[in-house]
Amino acid sequence: MPSIYDFEVTGARGEVVPLDRYRDRVLLVVNTASFCAYTPQYAELVELHKALGPLGLSVLAFPCNQFGAQEPGSAEEISTFCRVAYDVTFPVFARVDVNGPNAHPLYAFLTSARRGIFGTRSIKWNFTKFLADRDGQVVARFAPRIRPRALEPAIRKLLGPEAAL
């Protein structure tokens, strides 16, 4: 059975990043944008990363410019914005398409594994979130309006007993 670990992505500096490097971690994969009404969710993603990263969570951000052209910058501009505005220390990868014929294979996998409202595969907006377990299986999909802090119980459950509240 394929898993999230079977994919490679491009880092913000153009390097190939095998997702296998996150093996045995719980992953929260988010398509992001710098100029979106949901952009303040970065702050909660940072909180989750800081609190639960030591217990096995990795937040992975994938900038996307497919929704209202809200992520028009270069990889360097995006990285600088994330670092300066939100003190982001989790990986922010190169910009990707999440829908359509040029959708990144990772997103084709994610949207096939967990469909959205009414069974649709397409992502409707920035800050759609996918949660994968330590085996690399996608276990949940969350709409952009669902705030990252609301995901904490589900994340802690996947992390195991050491992460119990």
From TrEMBL:
Protein name: Glutathione peroxidase
Active-site residues from the entry: 36
InterPro entries recorded: Glutathione_peroxidase, GPX_AS, GPX_CS, Thioredoxin-like_sf
Keywords: Oxidoreductase, Peroxidase
Species this chain originates from: Enterovirga aerilata
KW Ligase (keyword) present: no
Pfam families: GSHPx
PANTHER family cross-referenced by the UniProt entry: GLUTATHIONE PEROXIDASE
UniProt entry tagged with the keyword Nucleotidyltransferase: no
Family from the record: Belongs to the glutathione peroxidase family.
Any single GO BP term: cellular response to oxidative stress
Molecular function via GO: peroxidase activity
